[in-house]
Amino acid sequence: MKKILLVDDHSIVRQGLRNLIELESDLEVTGEAASGIEAIKLVRSNTYDVVVMDISMPDKNGVDTLHDLKHVNADLPVLILSGYAEEQYALNLMRNGCKGYLSKDAEPEEIISAIRAIANGKRYISSELAELMTNELSHPTEKQLHETLSDREFQVFFKLAGGLSATEIADELCISVKTVSTYRTRILEKMSLKTNADLTYYAIKNGLIT
């Protein structure tokens, strides 16, 4: 029996996933978290085979939570089940440790197939994500600007675009303000942008934040 942790700030979404998963004889929901911080606490104290997690959460977004989960348990596979389409986040998150990415609009059968594959040590690549990855290999110069960022750069970019100050980011990531400034400079250079407002505009335009 594979043990599943559900992480989503909407209780109705968690309940729907629980109802779906518990129809399967080989899968069991043994934990639920309404936030990234709660998820990390549960992973520290319990054993799970898969984490199924949303990107958008109030206290700690899925990007940060994925990064922190990898430090708590590097071998714990994570499936991102998000309201955002694959092209907005999937490639960055797959590079940075998640084992699969699906839209919440995916069919129930595909969600179960993805959970089962990841629980058994495989990656799950949807047809949409496979096409994105193929296009990236065929046309690497057409990569979106945020896809050129490293794991940590993407984290900092996401927070800058969301309006956080360097001090707030430093506190959240437990790094110095100087280090945040260094990341900011590197991000702006890579993305050919000049200000934090440019980052915010880019993120909104590309559907990364609302």
Automatic annotation (TrEMBL):
Xref: CDD domains: LuxR_C_like (cd06170), REC_NarL-like (cd17535)
Example GO BP: phosphorelay signal transduction system
Presence of the UniProt keyword Phosphoprotein in the record: yes
Domain HTH luxR-type residues, every copy: 142-207
Record domain Response regulatory: where: 3-119
Gene Ontology MF terms: DNA binding
Gene3D superfamilies (UniProt xref): 3.40.50.2300
4-aspartylphosphate: modified positions: 54
UniProt keyword annotations, A-Z: DNA-binding, Phosphoprotein, Transcription, Transcription regulation
Record's protein name: Two component transcriptional regulator, LuxR family
Organism: Methylovorus glucosotrophus (strain SIP3-4)
Classification lineage: Bacteria, Pseudomonadati, Pseudomonadota, Betaproteobacteria, Nitrosomonadales
